[in-house]
Design goal:
Organism: Candidatus Fimimonas merdipullorum
Number of strands: 26
Protein name: FAD-dependent oxidoreductase
Number of helices: 8
Distance between the termini: 56 Å
GO molecular function, one term: oxidoreductase activity
Keywords: Oxidoreductase
InterPro entries: FAD/NAD-bd_sf, FAD/NAD-binding_dom, Metab_Enz_Cyan_OpOx_G3PDH
Largest sheet: 7 strands, mixed
Shape: globular
Helix content: 10-25%
Length: 408
């Protein structure tokens, strides 16, 4: 069987990509879970869709908007299916996936990677100690509470002040648990400012900065955690250890783009985003392979996840000229910027660039220049690493070096 495009992943990026691509191409949408929607299925808090729909939706409500649109397309779906092998052919790709019926094979012209991201675990951050129950990633705890109706514990320590950690601090408190504190190894919080206020301050949940969990204790069930202060390099400081009695440790210590499929295709990756290097169309450095959403870089708003999915879906369904790529140079205190490349032989009238700072910055001007011409300039009173910024610029007449710069 042949499809013009295979989309891997049916979260918000994959749904948006499949819907947009189906307007011009035949599409197969493959998802490893039994239902589409991705992580949104368990995000029952509101705040989704403010940019796209102009209203606050819960995660399931936001996902359902796209699921409803998907039903009105000719997109073929394969749920509870796992891609096991992708091979490049002389023209297009050969793809194998495993489903309930067994192993299936399709050929396709292009591939869109919308595989989302995954959480770091205790092993990934070197938390030592007993191998006891009661240690959860924030996503696992969220699934227990919101989907299965199970309270993971009564006395909870949360490590990491990212948005999902903050949201779970509030959620567990509302369900009757005592959140003893949110601990963050960095000197500044990792989550959005509004979540710091709405999830911690409003519920009198303490936030401890420059501290981390270094050891867990418990014969069968977790009984204590060891908390240590950390230095400027986030290394534990000897002699600062304190023990906190608890029965649950929730790890909200960061997300990493899920890119095993990208690795199998030997795609050039960006060490800062942990995702593939792409041009303004979301096409990777391999012709015919696109990446979008949190598989490309971890977004702070689902609206931008869907936006990049639509970008990938639109351009993947178009006939493309051979690419003429030039780099988008990044100068100053940026953590990263996406896209990393510009295709001069493709539409560049409305190029969207997402960026984050490496450290908190104040009173900085961000400019985008092409040669000696400034095409974007904005003064930011404050820039924070957790809060992604988005700019749009016309680069259709790009002549000369392209530079994104941050300066006083």
């Amino acid at each position: 069987m042949y499809f013009d495009i295979v989309v891997i992943g049916a979260g918000p990026a994959g749904l948006a990509a499949a819907i947009k691509a189906s307007q011009r191409a035949s599409v197969l949408l493959i998802e490893r879970e039994a239902k589409p929607g991705g992580i949104l299925k368990q995000c029952i808090h509101d705040g989704f869709g403010v940019v796209r729909f102009g209203e606050k939706l819960s995660g399931p409500e936001y996902a359902q908007r796209f699921i409803n649109q998907l039903k009105d397309t000719d997109v073929k779906t394969a749920f509870f299916s796992f891609v096991t092998q992708i091979k490049r052919l002389e023209q297009g790709f050969s793809l194998h996936y495993v489903c309930k019926e067994g192993v299936k094979h399709v050929n396709c012209g292009k591939i869109i990677l919308a595989t989302g991201c995954r959480e770091r675990t205790a092993n990934a951050i070197s938390v030592f100690g007993d191998r006891c129950s009661g240690v959860f990633t924030a996503g696992a705890a969220q699934n227990l509470v919101n989907v299965l109706g199970v309270l993971p514990g009564r006395r909870v320590v949360i490590l990491g002040s990212g948005d999902i950690g903050l949201i779970m601090a509030r959620r567990l408190t509302l369900e009757g648990a005592k959140v003893l504190g949110v601990y963050e190894a960095k000197p500044v919080p990792s989550g959005l400012s509004r979540n710091i206020h709405q999830c911690l301050h409003d519920f009198d949940i303490p936030l401890y900065l420059s501290r981390t969990v270094t050891r867990v204790f418990g014969r069968d069930r977790l009984s204590e955690v060891e908390i240590s202060e950390v230095d400027e390099n986030m290394r534990p400081i000897a002699g600062t250890q304190q023990r906190v009695q608890c029965d649950t440790l929730v790890l909200a210590v960061g997300l990493i783009p899920e890119n095993e499929v990208a690795a199998s295709l030997s795609l050039p990756m960006d060490g800062r985003t942990k995702g593939a290097i792409v041009d303004q169309t979301c096409q990777t450095m391999a012709d015919g392979v696109y990446a979008c959403g949190n598989a490309l870089h971890v977004n702070d708003l689902v609206d931008y996840v869907s936006e990049s999915g639509e970008t990938a879906g639109f351009f993947a369904s178009q006939e493309r000229k051979p690419r003429k790529l030039v780099p988008i140079n990044v100068v100053g205190g940026f953590g990263y910027a996406v896209p990393q490349m510009l295709d001069l032989n493709c539409d560049a009238k409305n190029v969207i660039i997402y960026f984050r700072t490496a450290q908190p910055e104040e009173n900085k001007r961000v400019t985008l220049t092409v040669g000696d011409k400034t095409v974007f300039s904005k003064k930011y009173a404050r820039l924070l690493p957790p809060e992604m910024e988005r700019i749009a610029a016309d680069l259709s007449d790009a002549q000369g070096e392209i530079t994104l710069k941050m300066e006083d």
